[in-house]
Design goal:
The complex is a heterodimer of chains A (about 270) and B (about 210).
Chain A (H helix, E strand, L loop, with lengths): L3 H26 L11 H20 L19 H25 L4 H26 L11 H21 L11 H29 L7 H24 L4 H23 L7
Chain B lengths: L3 E6 L8 H9 L10 E7 L2 E4 L2 E4 L2 E7 L8 H5 L5 E3 L5 E3 L9 H5 L6 E3 L4 E3 L5 H5 L5 H5 L5 E5 H8 L18 E4 L4 H12 L8
Parallel strand pairs in B: 1-11
Antiparallel strand pairs in B: 1-10, 2-5, 3-4, 6-7, 8-9
The chains are: A mainly alpha (about 270), B alpha+beta (about 210).
Chain lengths: ~270, ~210
């Protein structure tokens, strides 16, 4: 499990991107753009930035020579890893800039919307670069359409559930009626979790897992199943503030287990 | 020399590892890092013929270093641009630029980049380019007592020795186009068939 730190980086960065997207979509749909400076925009953006920075910090733990990390963007010409790191850094930088503008109540609305749109675009580029970085032609287990599909699925699933769980702490009139939005996010998360589990099952039938890591697959499926039950309960009965957070934690655990399993599919060559 | 390449005669190699030891000694490599490594490929078993059991066990050796590929994926993927390729095709890694991310090790289908836990950086065979430039053979080639290793221009080596293309268990050559010419052992075909049969079987439990 040498790639634990990379699993954390990829999952957290996908969560940050997905959360920004869902918050932006909700803002657009309610006519309250994400950069409008209402009470909940700053906490959401702050959480997005904190999660992305945490992921980047985790990625440093994977490096054998962190002091050379500043060279990581030196091969933009051909290295998808360089491009991924650049996009992640720019994403964090743009979100930070937007937070500063909102905090200081500076800049025009157009500038803020532009930065928000740029952040959303950088998030998309980050996911694309991340997927391409793992689609190595020499690693058949990763070089399939399942890699970008599962990365996108993680971003959307964790993003929707993360924003939905965060809204559990928001006043009822947030976004013109927070309860409907919470239910929409939880419904989206339920469907996405079902898709992720179906994709996972399809992927596992193509790859025969050695017994030594099949327990990870069981954990992933078990947590995913619990997540489905919790999300169903949230849609039916609501859930205050505790249940959404628990549901988010369970699904985050499921996605992390799935990501750890993804890294295990690369066969270590003994040549 | 237009294109540097290694030649390896698997039919002559005894697996003595003189090449591996010479490379390790010359380059002062630490424990766990082997730029040239010798691997045994074995198979077969016991077959019943009438009332008798006959052994069909076989084994042969593969001596592998960096293949200084035509399309070096290590150079493509390294985020620190730590790799460069000389006009003669020798791929050199500047370990001082290395981040220790091990991405090149993931990408290389031959397992050539070797991560040094002590330094936190990766290193690999550089073809003893300084010796080659001085008209001398690489250390591993000079050390081989069976003369199973050679080096030279890729086209000349292919013309002289031919090429088996892919020799089991090496990956498909079109992935990175290695500058490598191999004379296969007579049992390489049987090893490939057994390997394919084993790869197609169940590997483990249900998830």
């Amino acid at each position: 499990m040498k790639e634990r730190s990379l699993a954390v980086f990829t999952v957290l960065s996908q969560l940050a991107v997905g959360a920004l997207w869902f918050w932006a979509v909700a803002g657009w749909a309610t006519g309250q753009p994400v950069a409008a400076g209402d009470g909940w925009t700053l906490p959401v953006l702050g959480a997005v930035l904190a999660v992305m920075l945490s992921g980047l910090a985790a990625s440093f733990l994977h490096l054998g020579a962190p002091s050379s990390a500043w060279r990581a963007c030196s091969n933009l010409r051909s290295s998808w890893l360089s491009r991924e790191i650049l996009c992640a850094s720019l994403f964090a930088g743009v979100v930070a800039a937007l937070i500063v503008l909102l905090r200081l109540d500076a800049g025009t609305a157009a500038l803020r919307r532009g930065l928000a749109g740029l952040a959303a675009l950088l998030g998309l580029l980050l996911l694309a670069c991340m997927a391409q970085a793992y689609r190595l032609r020499t690693v058949p287990a990763w070089d399939t359409w399942i890699t970008p599909a599962s990365f996108a699925g993680t971003a959307l699933l964790l993003g929707s559930l993360g924003v939905g769980a965060g809204l559990a702490f928001a006043p009822a009139d947030t976004m013109g009626g927070v309860e409907n939005w919470r239910r929409a996010f939880f419904l989206a998360a339920l469907m996405l979790l079902g898709l992720q589990l179906a994709l996972f099952r399809f992927w596992m039938t193509r790859w025969r897992a050695p017994r030594r890591i099949s327990h990870l697959a069981r954990i992933r499926v078990a947590l995913g199943g619990c997540g489905l039950v919790l999300l169903g309960a949230l849609l039916v009965a609501g859930g205050g503030t505790a249940l959404p957070v628990v549901a988010f934690g369970v699904v985050l655990g499921a996605e992390t287990a799935g990501r750890l399993l993804f890294y295990e599919t690369r066969t270590e060559r003994e040549l | 020399m237009n294109r540097f390449a290694f030649y390896f005669d698997s039919s002559s190699c005894t697996g003595c590892k003189a090449c591996q030891v010479a490379c390790k000694d010359h380059n002062r490599l630490p424990v766990g890092v082997t730029w040239r490594r010798v691997r045994e490929v074995s198979g077969g078993g016991w077959e019943r013929r009438g009332d008798a059991w006959v052994s069909s066990v076989f084994a042969y050796q593969l001596s592998l270093a960096c293949n200084h590929c035509q399309r070096p994926i290590c150079l493509e993927v390294c985020p620190a641009a730590a790799y460069r390729q000389r006009p003669d095709g020798i791929v050199i890694l500047d370990s001082s630029r290395c981040l220790g991310c091990r991405y090149c090790g993931w990408a290389c289908p031959y397992g050539t980049p070797q991560y040094d836990e002590r330094l936190g950086r990766t290193s690999k065979c550089h073809g003893c380019f300084e010796q080659v430039d001085a008209g001398q053979p690489p250390t591993c080639v000079a050390a081989c007592p069976m003369r199973a290793l050679d080096f030279g221009d890729h086209a000349e080596l292919l013309a002289r020795h031919g090429s088996a293309g892919v020799v089991f268990p090496l990956p498909e050559a079109d992935l990175t186009e290695p500058a490598l010419s191999v004379t296969p052992h007579r049992e390489a075909g049987r090893a490939a068939r057994e390997g394919a049969r084993l790869a197609g079987g169940p590997e483990g439990g249900e998830p």
